[in-house]
Specification:
With about 375 residues, the protein is of the alpha/beta class. The chain has helices at about 30-50, 70-85, 105-115, 130-135, 140-155, 170-180, 200-205, 215-230, 255-260, 285-295, 310-320, 330-335, 340, 345-355, 370, 375-380; strands at about 5-10, 55-60, 95-100, 120-125, 155-165, 185-190, 235, 240, 265-270, 275, 280-285, 300-305, 355-360, 365. The protein is about 40% helix and about 20% strand. The strands form 3 sheets. A 9-stranded mixed β-sheet has the order 7-8-6-5-4-3-2-1-9, sandwiched between helices. Helix 1 (about 30-50) packs parallel to helix 2 (about 70-85). The radius of gyration is 21 Å and the shape is globular. The model has no long low-confidence stretch (mean pLDDT about 95).
Length: about 375
Amino acid sequence: MAGIYLHVPFCRQACNYCDFHFSTNTRNLDAMVQAIVAEARLRAPHFLGLAKGKVQTFYLGGGTPSLLPPESIKTLVSGVSKALNLDVTSLDEVTLEANPEDLSAECIDAWLENGFNRLSVGIQSFDNETLAWMNRAHTGEQAEKGIQLAHKAGFETITADLIYGVPTDRHWKEDVRRALALPIRHLSAYALTVEPKTLLGTLVKRGEEVPAPDQQTVKEYNHLCKTMEDLGWSHYETSNWAAPRENDVYWIAAHNHAYWSGMPYLGLGPGAHGFFPPQRYANVSSNSAYLRAIERQTLQDSREVLSPSDRYNEAIMTGLRTAKGICPSSLQAAHGFRPDVVDSQAWFTALDCGDLISIEEGRYRIPEPRWITGDHVSASLFHVG
């Protein structure tokens, strides 16, 4: 069991690039907290029959869950825990996504008291002009002070998010330097993507914004890869790096790593997804529709039963996003397909041109320098039909 994900669908303001489900109208915040707890009760019978005490992680994401008042977070965590017969304090990893402007002493202490042992902080950049361009609500200085405060208060595990490939005058090397000067043990970095239903997407379509050139994006990614390698961090997934612990163990994000491994998980809240093989569900991405459904004691979601071909294609996609890569014989055993048979020409072409390399007996991965554009390799190996 990968774990439990709660989606808090509120943000103070809309970042210009974000296409996650959220609302800046927090009028129904208390009702939403109660509704997510009620959804947990509705899903509990099915969940408890499958989980069998194997839950390892709990993740409060969004949106911006850190904008919830401490009392609301307590209500949410305790209510969901009770509904699912869960002791959050016994789990390996309990994560809360937070924005720097919310990292106050009062909130940090409350999060620790409610069982959170890991913070995921959405910094994105330390450059104030770039943050303003993104429409973020914090400054670089707030991010630095907030992470130092959280670490001093008792958060041993902190991860920071950065975005590269941004069309501003920001100096990427300085962003990386400032992040690594902080007491973090994990770093996630994502290329800025222009999504059509965002403000940035609209501005680019109008010609009022121009995306960063591909050469800049690749250069910044390569700089980060080299910097982290020199420090001994593990680049264990395309966008994620973990600091070393001891005995070749790293501070990986256990919750997300389980997603990439195809493990089942429970999703709660509007816009949240859940996965209980072979079925996936997606809750309605509308706060009002979600609240109405829960008030009627019903679940408004779309459901899909994944075929062996679907599961195989997803295993190819997620596997090739990790340093562990894929094992054709394991794919055959789990899903009935293997890439060197599904399309032998595509498989051997990828090997011949270096898009795939052998890393140990029976396993293959995309080499790090090509990881940033590796999705086309995965797609070429899909089973179609």
